[in-house]
Write a structure and sequence with these properties.
single chain, about 150 residues, mainly alpha, 5 helices
Length: about 150
């Protein structure tokens, strides 16, 4: 047996054959762990897939976040989602089919309508205060009908 008991420390002396050899330490957590390295490799692979898949004129949208695939995806989705006729039609449809329910406070409902009309305005749609008011009135439940009165003039 190459190991001996070290009586002064109560432990075993290292195998003489192993002296001077570097031991590979494997941590269970942190940046040296197998799990983290595997995750980082997948993150880098996903980031490279997005970066290399973009036309060079699109790189401006991911400047500074090109090491985070999730941030790139969210930024690119938001940028491209708000462009085009399909987005305009979808936003109009969303406004008109978003009735206020009894659980939602009126101010929250008005804020959500305002956000949608702001989105339409960012898509170069002409938005007037009358349109915003009409959207709010149309989406209120019947219980608000005594409150809503329209001046015929």
């Amino acid at each position: 047996m190459d190991q001996e008991v070290d009586m002064s420390t109560g432990g075993y002396l290292e195998d003489i054959r192993e002296l001077g050899k570097l031991k590979k330490l494997e941590l269970s957590t942190g940046r040296n762990s197998k799990a983290w390295k595997s995750w980082k490799k997948q993150q880098d692979k996903a980031a490279l897939t997005i970066v290399y898949g973009l036309h060079t004129d699109q790189n401006i949208h991911i400047k500074g976040i090109d090491d985070s695939p999730l941030a790139m995806f969210k930024t690119l989705t938001q940028y491209h989602l708000i462009k085009g006729l399909r987005s305009v039609v979808s936003t109009y449809k969303h406004i008109m089919t978003s009735p206020k329910d009894d659980m939602t406070p009126l101010t929250t409902h008005i804020e959500s309508i305002q956000k949608l009309t702001d989105l339409l305005e960012s898509l170069s749609e002409p938005i007037t205060n009358s349109f915003i008011a009409a959207c709010i009135f149309v989406t209120l439940p019947i219980t608000y009908s005594p409150v809503i009165s329209v001046d015929p003039g």
